[in-house]
Amino acid sequence: MNNNHSYFLGLYYRLTDFFSVNLAFLLGVFIRFSNEPTFSFIESGYASFLIFVNLVWIVSSSSQRIYSLQRFSGRFSYVLTTAAVVLLHLLIIVAFNGLIKTYYSRLFIFFTYVNFIALMLLFRFLANWVYRLYLNRKVIKSAIVIVGDEIYQGDVEGFLMENINEDFQEIFRLAGECSIIEKLESIKQNLPISELYVPLSKYNEDELEELSNYCDNNFIRMKLIFDSKRISARKMTAFKYNQTTVFGINLTPLDDGYNILLKRIFDFLFASFCMLFLFSWLFPIIAIAIKLSSKGPVFFTQMRTGIDNKEFKCYKFRSMKMNVDADRIQATANDPRITKIGAFLRRTSLDELPQFINVIRGEMSIVGPRPHMLKHTEEYSQIIGNFMNRHAIKPGITGLAQIKGYRGEIDDISLLQNRVRLDRFYVNNWTLLLDVKIVIQTALTIFKDHK
Length: 451
Prior knowledge:
Layout: H1 3-33, H2 46-63, H3 75-99, H4 106-138, E1 142-147, H5 150-163, E2 169-174, H6 180-188, E3 193-199, H7 205-217, E4 221-225, H8 229-232, E5 236-241, E6 244-249, H9 257-293, E7 299-305, E8 311-317, H10 340-348, H11 355-360, E9 365-367, H12 374-383, E10 396-398, H13 400-403, H14 413-428, H15 432-444
Parallel strand pairs: 1-2, 1-3, 3-4, 9-10
Antiparallel strand pairs: 5-6, 7-8
């Protein structure tokens, strides 16, 4: 999609979403309280709650830049990110409602979000329809020109084909060896050119300057292709140091400040919710059961490897009898050290519940690679290449490897390799939606038999 079109459509989405969230809120109030004649929108606190709802939407939508349409690789990626933002907004509102003294109706919140989703879809459809009508009447068809090797042309063209409207834009390919300006002049005789894609490796500084001047004089947006397949396949961030552009190669999507903030908000709210509504009543039951099963403390603490190879104290419910080998020897199937209540806690992963404390303290995340004992980190890093990449982010209570079945005892090198492979995939492909999927999958498999 042309950047101008992306900008204006993103602006329309911003306006329609803002209208949708406010209209949905008011409809939710009407549906819930229309039969209560004494209800006051101002005195009940719902007016101030509406301000909070708007502020949360502005922050959550801005954090993922869902109105910068040109930054998304395709429609599917955009839809998933927008859905994740709506879900994050809902989680924040629900958590806020559970923590404050002024309690807002849960039925009202349900009506509001059903309305919000329906109105968002409706108004975005209308925005697209109206904008398309405008383009049909006002916009002249233009050309997009891609210069360079076939492999890079195919990548760029594939992306553009998913995001442009062929009624308004036509794509032309040019070989890197031809006289580009002459070819551009030839194309211009039939269609105005809106964008020119040029590979950095094919031209020297003077040639690029000549092309840039030509584009400036002819109102063509020039875009440079960083055509190093091995490097450009990785996530990169551009920085401006005075007049020099520097590309930073990210270790993980969580190198992005927006993503760090988004994941931290999700972690903190989810952990707080679980501590308040799950841990608060389940803790005394588990604590009593542990005390009755064997002598020793309720909690078992152990130093584990965290983000950037930093050590932290990891909390668990004690599932073993007190023994001197706890920090040296990993638990195995039918381990005689494991108590009866401990076996149940380990089978259902309830022994990991105290790690919500680690999450609130910022030492762990809800989702991430599982933290290993320090001894195992040292051993495994010598066996598996690029093993330490899994420590580029915070470790998690659950993770992609765990829901795929790679959890618990490691007695085979292939198990370790597959666990690390999945951990590295998660580290390199993190999204908020992936976190939500893993949390849901974890909840669904708690009571399954894990082999």
